[in-house]
Amino acid sequence: MEAIDPRATLDQLVTESGESYAALSRMLRRNPAYLQQYVKRGTPRLLAERDRKLLAGYFRIDEEKLGGPRANAAPAVVQVRRLDIAASAGPGGLAEDDRLAGGELFDPRLLASLGVREDHSAVLRAQGESMSPTIEDGDRMLIDERDRRIVARGGIFVIRIDGALMVKRVARSGDMIAITSDNADFPPTPSLAPNEVEILGRVVWLSRALR
């Protein structure tokens, strides 16, 4: 059986996808030259397990093709914990703690395509209309608890401010954190210092019932 060359595999994937090594390296939160050095110079010798898993999920390939262990048969479903709290898409719902309410079943291929691990994610419900039409009242949100980095481009995060749990669009603005709603009827929250905002995770997937 012919041995798999992870570097050649990754090089081919990058070429065929039109992605850049620098962009993929930044996705991994690495130096922009990280993946190019891995492929072209052989440094590092092996991809870190986390990087390998994220790349395999991004390209939707078996991790083995990037130098990982031979995959066992994937489970039909995996369980992500569900929190019995609502993240307010409005003024902010009070939540003293994160109450576990069983689990939500997901296709592992979906989680892989999102670059999410079931043991570092959670499902909770949105409440309110301030993020409409992006997120509606009652939507179930999957959050990636590993993704808590706020940058200038911003993203949608579940956050906690003074004990109030909410889902908002959050971005870095100089030394401050800008917090806004997608619904124009709701005024933006005054910018806050980073230590005033607890980031729980980025919203990466939504599920809603058709009414």
Structure summarized in a few sentences:
The chain is an alpha+beta fold. The chain has five helices and ten strands.
SSE topology sketch:
Layout: H1 6-17, H2 21-27, H3 34-41, H4 49-59, E1 78-88, E2 93-94, E3 100-106, H5 108-114, E4 121-127, E5 140-144, E6 155-161, E7 164-173, E8 176-180, E9 189-192, E10 198-207
Parallel strand pairs: 1-4
Antiparallel strand pairs: 1-3, 2-7, 4-5, 5-10, 6-7, 6-10, 7-8, 8-9
Textual characterization of the structure:
There is one protein chain. It is built from 5 helices and 10 strands, in the order H-H-H-H-E-E-E-H-E-E-E-E-E-E-E. Strands 1, 2, 3, 4, 5, 6, 7, 8, 9 and 10 form a 10-stranded mixed beta sheet that branches. By secondary structure, it is of the alpha+beta class. The protein has helices at 6-17, 21-27, 34-41, 49-59, 108-114, and strands at residues 78-88, 93-94, 100-106, 121-127, 140-144, 155-161, 164-173, 176-180, 189-192, 198-207.
List keywords for this structure.
globular; 211 residues; ten-stranded mixed beta sheet
Label the structural class: alpha+beta
Strand coverage percent: 25-35%
How many DSSP E strands? 10
> What is the first-to-last residue Cα distance?
54 Å
SSE pattern, N- to C-terminal: HHHHEEEHEEEEEEE
Mean pLDDT: 85
Task: Report low-confidence residues grouped into runs of 5 or more.
Answer: 93-97
Rg of Cα set? 19 Å
What percent of the residues sit in helical stretches (DSSP H or I)?
A: 10-25%
Strand count, sense and barrel status of the largest sheet are: 10 strands, mixed
Shape: globular
The number of helices is 5
